[in-house]
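This section describes the prediction task in plain terms. A model, or a person checking by hand, is given the sequence of a single protein chain and must write out its three-dimensional structure as a string of tokens. No templates, partner chains or ligands are provided. The sample shown here is typical of the held-out split.
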Amino acid sequence: MELDDVSKGVLYVLQHNSRQITTREMADQIGVSASTVRNRIERLEDEGVIRGYYPEIDYDNAGLQLHVLFVCGAPGVERNALAETARNVSGVVSVQEVLDGAENVRIEAVGTDTDDIARVGDELSAIGLSIANSKVFKSSHRQPFDHFGEQLVDEPE
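The expected answer:
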């Protein structure tokens, strides 16, 4: 889907404050009507550009002290199916497929203790992924993509 300036503005604003902003406030920032914003959000969702709205969770504060990255390998022809299956392993919170190389699947998992994380690793191996490495996160930070039209949005003062 090709994004026009309005869609880029909607995505920019949603990335910064999708939970606490109204369509009217978004419209004021983008310079369009609230109904245009509502229609655009619906279209972006229908087209699969917006796939969901998720909270950013501090797993340590939530009592899940272990946040681990598993670096795995999967045969190229099986990568997609194995990555999809890995999403069903309890404790897995993110699966990323990498286009090439032997280590072509990255899996984030959280757990309460080392036994819990060992179980996740065992289940990933059992479905056919080869675990090349695992790393415990100290911290993790995400930020919005900054090229969705920052210049198109009037920031509130």
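For orientation: The longest strand covers residues 66-73.
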